[in-house]
Amino acid sequence: MNETFSARTKSLIDNLKRTCASYGLGNDGNEFKIVTQAFLYKFLNDKFGKEVKAIDPKLAESENWEKAIATYSDNDFKLLLARLPAGSAKLEPVHFISYLFTNSNDPEFAQLFDDTLRDISLKNSSIFSVETEDKSQIRLFDDELSNYIANKSQRNNFCKAIINQLVEFSFEDMFDEGFDFFSTIFEYMIKDYNKDGGGKYAEYYTPHAVAKIMASVLVQDDATNVTCYDPAAGSGTLLMNLAHAIGPDKCTIYSQDISQKSSSLLRLNLILNNLTHSIHNIVQGNTIVKPAHPERRYDYIVSNPPFKLDFSDDQPALASSTNAERFFAGIPNIPKKELDKMPIYLLFLQHIISSLSSEGKAAVVVPTGFITSKSGIGKKIIEKLVDETMLRGVVSMPSNIFATTNTNVSILFIDKANTKGEVVLMDASNLGEKIKDGKNQKTLLSSHDEDMIISTFKMHEAIEDFAVVVDYNAIKEKNYSLSAGQYFDIKIDYTEISSEKYNQVMTAYTLKLQDLFKESNQLEKDIAEQLGRIKYE
Known about the structure:
- By secondary structure, this protein is an alpha/beta fold.
- It has three domains: 3-175, Ferritin, CATH 1.20.1260; 188-487, Vaccinia Virus protein VP39 (Rossmann fold); 498-537.
- 42% of the residues lie in helices and 13% in strands.
- It has 19 helices and 13 strands.
- It has helices at residues 3-22, 31-55, 57-61, 65-69, 74-82, 97-102, 109-123, 125-128, 155-166, 179-190, 208-218, 237-246, 260-272, 315-318, 345-354, 376-387, 447-458, 472-477, 499-532, and strands spanning 130-132, 137-138, 226-230, 251-257, 282-284, 298-303, 356-367, 391-396, 409-415, 423-427, 433-437, 440-444, 467-470.
- It has an eleven-stranded mixed β-sheet with strand order 2-1-5-4-3-6-7-9-8-10-13, with helices on both faces. Strands 11-12 form a two-stranded antiparallel sheet.
- Helix 1 packs across helix 2 (31-55) and helix 1 packs antiparallel against helix 9.
- The longest helix has 34 residues, at 499-532.
- The N and C termini lie far apart (87 Å).
């Protein structure tokens, strides 16, 4: 990864945040919209420049491609746009950052800024719009970004300050950087905005190490023209790692998430990682109540669903007979207290199993308590996975691998056509380094730790006190427990000693025990004597 590119890009993000703070939007709920949308505008503008230069060498040779393209006739410009790669933003000269910069002293500049972003959204709605579950569209940019500044007299200056940050350098040389670069930039940009809270489903950020392990274990062969799905996608970390392992040009992504913010961040992630062709498959909506792609079955599914959530309002409808096939193990009952602790992950897990193709594979983050379920819905799910030989394995992760939750987690691997015929159970709880992350403690896995987990799983390697490989019958004999520790060999250390040494040790123990008995008898006498001296007055 080019460190100069990384430093300059991170500096731009920091400057955008600083600009927001200067105008009273620091840590405001709308700050993330301004920062991410301004960044996206910059990204699309510079990528457009790189693409048109590749089409017309004259533009590449010109001192200023934006001025050169402005001399095109209407017909020539239309032909240029027609030759852009599929999924590319189609911009007009009046959309360029340079045009806004030149006109930044316009007395109605904030309106010009808003109109520009709105026009880009409208002209590219067929490429970049995200759908809701009722088929309405969420366009690329908010209609009036400047309106987040309450003081109308400051809106021109605010928009001008944003544009001044965007003209500092060009992204053009960075577009050849790969997934590692853009995933790092994306994580840096959203690190303050993708924390749990807000909306009905909490927005969890999956650590890169967990995402890498899930993708690397799932994708073991060359895959072409496959479908990937996450029913609780969040900002898309899991899907991006999976797409990278497969190849962005070899897969199509589908997703759903109830959070509009998460859907917008996922769209940004897709654009950064050359997966624009999958934007139309992002749906903002309630997966459990109304899945967006009910008839589709997927080749790969990855998910880190919310574990606990109040879904009591939806429970009666979910429990109807029409959902019996999808929720084969049942719907959790509505508790009398603590509604927010209803185990919604059990519904997501059943939905995922039902959504796999006949040879589909899945990796799902679950609470570690699930893998030893002894009754109820959890036990029924495990029984199905084992009895129908689709359980591929389990990796129990270290505590605090997620900084925002103390819940211990495991990764459940499912393979509808488990050709290995055996199951890998792994206890990775002792790996990693404990560090402080603000007020929380966090466990970080090293690259060596990650590779050890991945290679051990893929090679079906048994390692003492770390991993076992068992058949399905062995799991049934253990009452369907998926905890690796229950399958580890019990070791007893033996030490060879002579008969003389044995007698010496036993004599010493006997003498010690006699001394303890004498001391105990004396204590009994002392206590009785003290009690006898107590008198009532």
